[in-house]
């Protein structure tokens, strides 16, 4: 039974209102917003509040910890716990440049992390988690990778899955394993900058193949294959980075057919497939022996895991890939690989990814409302490719935005050809708080509406 003498700010706990500690933290936040609580107010001792609410002490401790994490409360030692003064935001930068998953509403990530690590430490030998491992992942890690890839491919032989320390490492190892210095790699005119960095570092030549609103043009790929005899084609066909284009199935079939005909391999970098709304089958399903498929957890779950899965069907080529990978990245960190495996196999990863997908779609709706006619996204994924009015060029707009406390990425950062389109990439996940994201998008919208002549940076 709950006590009738509850503090006025605290509602009665609902049976189906979610975790009780979150209900209490949410009530604290709401009371601050409506003035029922004010900075400096003293909160009841934890044991007293636990007795009033008829919950255990741990629930109250977690509620107060969550409220402190939100900067709502502060502890003052023996004097007790008090409502904190508003936190002064010293950094005015609103980062729309980093492509990371948004924090999903209703998912207690801290608790998920603690529970996952607890399960890992309970089931695994801690010494094994802190020692060297062969590259490619343990049997359990590869089985988790096969399960992660099931929505794209159905049931897979786990031995065909290689576990890597992130997609960038996978791309670099594939370039080392499948090409030689001076070889040519074909890509779309705007592509992932990490590809360009790896190709340049290894002495490979990157050549752009013309694309349209559906991705790389088949006739231009065929022409480039005849002209350049490329060693590799790099494609990011689902919610492409940076253009957010999803290549239709017919185009995927055409490109796969050309790659088979010219015996050129494809790296299919597909980090956003699981976030997309009804995406076409991967190209790797159309040319299984021709395509090396990469799926990273960084865009669907969290970059901190540093885990990606690579599907390589040929045993000899898997070994070549592992030799290349070991030359610069001996292994995935065993602890984070074990955590990723735990989350995938116990269903936590699917729950987190569902939350990320829903949050991303909410943010796209916000961007569509604020950017109005300029928004051209598909409504899913983590980013928008915003073509600019003629009176702005992308580098100029990026500098102007930076002076107003907004970070965006200009088209030049993604260019594989000398000419780049006049656009910027806007990432919707890197700002944790939705209200701050809204403020950043509104500020950017106002900037886009002004001509550069009316913009003048402060001189100090």
From TrEMBL:
Organism superkingdom: Bacteria
Keywords associated with the record: Aminotransferase, DNA-binding, Pyridoxal phosphate, Transcription, Transcription regulation, Transferase
Pfam families named in the record: Aminotran_1_2, GntR
GO molecular function terms listed in the Swiss-Prot or TrEMBL record: DNA binding; DNA-binding transcription factor activity; pyridoxal phosphate binding; transaminase activity
Residue span, HTH gntR-type domain: 18-86
Coiled-coil ranges (or none): none
Xref: InterPro entries: Aminotransferase_I/II_large (IPR004839), HTH_trans_reg/aminotransferase (IPR051446), PyrdxlP-dep_Trfase (IPR015424), PyrdxlP-dep_Trfase_major (IPR015421), PyrdxlP-dep_Trfase_small (IPR015422), Tscrpt_reg_HTH_GntR (IPR000524), WH-like_DNA-bd_sf (IPR036388), WH_DNA-bd_sf (IPR036390)
Similarity comment: In the C-terminal section; belongs to the class-I pyridoxal-phosphate-dependent aminotransferase family.
Listed name of the protein: Aminotransferase class I/II-fold pyridoxal phosphate-dependent enzyme
Species for this entry: Duganella guangzhouensis
Lineage: Bacteria, Pseudomonadati, Pseudomonadota, Betaproteobacteria, Burkholderiales
């Amino acid at each position: 039974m709950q006590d009738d003498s509850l503090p006025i700010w605290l509602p009665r706990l609902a049976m189906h209102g979610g975790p009780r500690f979150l209900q209490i933290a949410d009530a604290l936040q709401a009371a601050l917003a409506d003035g029922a609580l004010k900075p400096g107010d003293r909160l009841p001792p934890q044991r007293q509040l636990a007795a009033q609410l008829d919950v255990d002490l741990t629930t109250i401790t977690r509620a107060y910890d969550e409220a402190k994490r939100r900067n709502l409360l502060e502890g003052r030692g023996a004097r007790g716990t008090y409502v904190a003064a508003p936190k002064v935001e010293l950094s005015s930068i609103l980062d729309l440049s980093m492509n990371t998953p948004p924090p999903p509403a209703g998912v207690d990530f801290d608790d998920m992390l603690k529970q996952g690590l607890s399960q890992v430490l309970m089931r695994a030998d801690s010494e094994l988690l802190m020692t060297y491992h062969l590259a490619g992942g343990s049997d359990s890690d590869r089985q988790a990778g096969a399960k992660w890839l099931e929505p794209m491919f159905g049931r897979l032989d786990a031995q065909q899955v290689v576990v890597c320390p992130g997609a960038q490492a996978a791309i670099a190892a594939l370039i080392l394993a499948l090409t030689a210095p001076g070889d040519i790699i074909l890509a779309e005119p705007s592509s992932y900058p990490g590809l360009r960095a790896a190709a340049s570092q290894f002495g490979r030549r990157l050549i752009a193949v013309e694309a349209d609103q559906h991705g790389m043009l088949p006739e231009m790929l065929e022409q480039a294959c005849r002209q350049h005899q490329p060693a590799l084609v790099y494609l990011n066909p689902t919610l492409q980075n940076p253009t957010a284009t999803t290549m239709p199935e017919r185009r995927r079939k055409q490109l796969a057919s050309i790659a088979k005909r010219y015996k050129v391999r494809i790296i299919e970098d597909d980090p956003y497939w699981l976030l997309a709304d009804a995406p076409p089958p991967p190209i790797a399903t159309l040319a299984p022996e021709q395509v090396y498929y990469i799926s990273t957890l960084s865009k669907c779950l969290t970059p901190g895991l540093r885990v990606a899965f690579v599907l390589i069907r040929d045993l000899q080529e898997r070994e070549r890939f592992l030799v290349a990978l070991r030359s610069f990245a001996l292994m995935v960190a065993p602890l984070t690989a074990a955590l990723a495996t735990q989350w995938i196999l116990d269903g936590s990863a699917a729950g987190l990814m569902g939350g990320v997908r829903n949050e991303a779609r909410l943010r796209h709706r916000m961007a569509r409302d604020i950017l109005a006619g300029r928004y051209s996204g598909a409504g899913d994924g983590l980013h928008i490719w915003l073509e600019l009015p003629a009176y702005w060029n992308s580098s100029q707009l990026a500098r102007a935005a930076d002076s107003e406390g907004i970070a965006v990425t200009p088209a030049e950062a993604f260019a594989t050809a000398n000419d780049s389109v006049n656009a910027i990439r806007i990432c919707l996940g890197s700002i944790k708080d939705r209200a701050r994201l809204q403020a950043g998008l509104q500020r950017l919208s106002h900037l886009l509406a002004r001509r550069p002549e009316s913009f003048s940076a402060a001189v100090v």
